[in-house]
Amino acid sequence: MLSILRNIVQEVNAARDLQEALRIIVSRVQEAMGTEVCSVYLLDPASNRYILMATEGLYQESVGKVSMGHSEGLVGLVGAREEPINLEDAPSHPRYRYFPETGEERFRSFLGVPIIHRRRMLGVLVVQQRESSRCFDEGEEAFLVTVSAQLASVIAHSEATGAISGLSLTGEETKDICFSGVPGAPGVAIGTGVVVYSTADLDAVPEKAAENIEQELELFRAAVQTVREDIQRVAKRLSSQLRPEELALFDVYLSMLGDKALPGEVDARIREGVWAQGALKQVVKQYIRHFEMMDDLYLRERAVDIRDLGRRLLSRLQEGEEKNVEYPENTVLVSEEITPAMLGEVPKGHLVGLVSVKGSSNSHVAILARAMGVPTVMGLVDIPVNQLDGKELVVDGFEGQLFASPSSELRAFYQEICDEEAELFRGLEALRDKPCETTDGHRVALLVNTGLMTDVARSLSHGAEGIGLYRTEVPFMIKDRFPSEQEQREYYREQLEAFAPNPVTMRTLDIGGDKALTYFPIQEENPFLGWRGIRVTLDHPEIFLVQVRAMLKASEGLNNLQIMLPMISNISEVEESLHLIYRVYHEVREEGYEIHMPKVGVMVEVPAVVYQIRELAERVDFLSVGSNDLTQYLLAVDRNNPRVAQLYHSYHPAVLQALVRVAQDAHSVGKPVGICGELAGDPGGALLLMAMGYDSLSMNAASLPKVKSVIRNVSREWAAQLLEDVLLLDSPHVIKSCVDLALRNEGFGRYLRPARSSSAALAKKTSA
């Protein structure tokens, strides 16, 4: 059964569209189970009805025509209960619904299983048999459940592809197709999708038509000839080292490149109007599917050769491809995984939104997006990225939703939100030079998180009182090697000068987890619990010492530097780091630099540190909570995994209790404590943190005006009562609702996400 299941999944994965995928499913399942009928009913989001989309055994004329309400008939019952239903005599069941156009009156045994993807009901997979005495056994039921679970994501992906193309399940034109991910950066963007993808990745090749068929043919033939010559060259070079039977493998490659083999089929697809890279992708995937389905192990392994050959050809095609991507004025950048380098490719002022399949609201790119004020949606699992190129898109960074091909009504609704946000910001500009002080005189320092020089001007214009977190890894990530001491010194000096005399807190290099350097790869099964942050730099003192030396030299004459150590989990790491910092300080002084010893603090990110605050505070000058990592470690949720993103919640009672404890313990020994996680940039979260006693709140520049406005218009006593109330609650969602309600009652409803109008709510939902 495992072999049969693997073959079905592989064949369905290679299907060109949803209809072909469904035909493959019903045909292969009917054959594997030896049943007379196999059918797939899909739940149409537009009509909320189950539609017969494919069948083997029922009348084909009924496909696409037979439908039933979401709770109607046995199919509806399977969907409503979300579990299998296995009946010997289906017609005798009170929920049985007879459709004469299907011819199903001949079949009495019924087994239906739900098709569910990420908690969303997609449809029902049904098998039927003529004999009433036959009840599908447990093994058959388990097989069908397994098939359903394996195929759910394939169906969701194919359904989404059709939706983006503008067609519903019934073939009708669709608008306002909505894909749900997770919010990455707040705001709304309306623009044109520009898909960027990795080179030599067949899966990432977008589907598009050939603009010039003859030119595409010429490009492909040149690529084939180049790859053929490469293989011949390698074979010749290795001929003296390999036996004849081993050299024969190169002949296999060359035979695959014959005119009547793979190139001939790609040639035919190009002539049908597909661009060369897309045609190559289609043919190679078809070859791989055929080889992987073969029973013979040797032949099955040839799929690896086909994949390798496909990548070689694609690489050559991309060498001859124009690398200049056109970025329209309102670019919505779309990719499987957006990187900082991709952001840098878009001309200044053209980037309005980001859409990424991988990542979550706390991944590094999402943090950069918030710093840049670019609305972002992350974690759009199973969305067909390649279909979004050139499409008009609406990015809703508040709700984590992406709309493709918006109607004029939906576009107007979101344009109104854009205008409201711009007007709100203009109204908050007057607060720039005013202190962040409650109505009863409690003062809180508002700082910013930065990493790019582009953050500086925005931070200063928003009234930042300093930098609570400068991400020093950003200069490391935009290079193809470690930056030199002088290069680092220049980066750091810019930040220190821009904010002098206000403090600038620089976090030492924090790589690992979700922050990778291409030239210093860290491959681990669980990177968030692995070699990251201070663990890396203490193991590589040559990196740490150079960085600290660059920081100290950059601070000469300014003396507003503070150094912060990330990912501390025990006292010995702090003591070892301090030893190295003091060593560099004395060395730099001996070189003639007039500098002061900077304050040194630690980040509270690891749960173990929550219980060592007093011991740590005796050794350092300040503490700063990194609430993003602390939250993910407390809740055991990988913040970059969209499948569990809904479990990550900054308002979780355990998180709030930990934050209260940290603030109390730090103040009990007389040390200041700040916070530089995303919770600080949320108006409601900022109120709770202020009530807990945090001395400084560090956030992205875009969040600063709203936070300052809220704090300046409430008393600390009011915020303390709110904190006391929510600490009695046991649900993060209830806590968030309670805080939002309190803000609305105080007149700050305009700072929360505007409620969508009933007309916009009619948008068709396709969960990605």
From TrEMBL:
Q: Which PROSITE patterns match?
A: PEP_ENZYMES_2
* Origin superkingdom: Bacteria
Which GO molecular-function terms appear in the entry?
kinase activity; metal ion binding; phosphoenolpyruvate-protein phosphotransferase activity
Task: Kindly report the protein's main subcellular placement as a broad class.
Answer: cytoplasm
Recorded hits in PANTHER family, A to Z, give: PHOSPHOENOLPYRUVATE-DEPENDENT PHOSPHOTRANSFERASE SYSTEM, PHOSPHOENOLPYRUVATE-PROTEIN PHOSPHOTRANSFERASE
Q: Please give the family membership noted in the entry.
A: Belongs to the PEP-utilizing enzyme family.
Name of the protein this chain belongs to: phosphoenolpyruvate--protein phosphotransferase
**Species of the source:** Marinobacter persicus
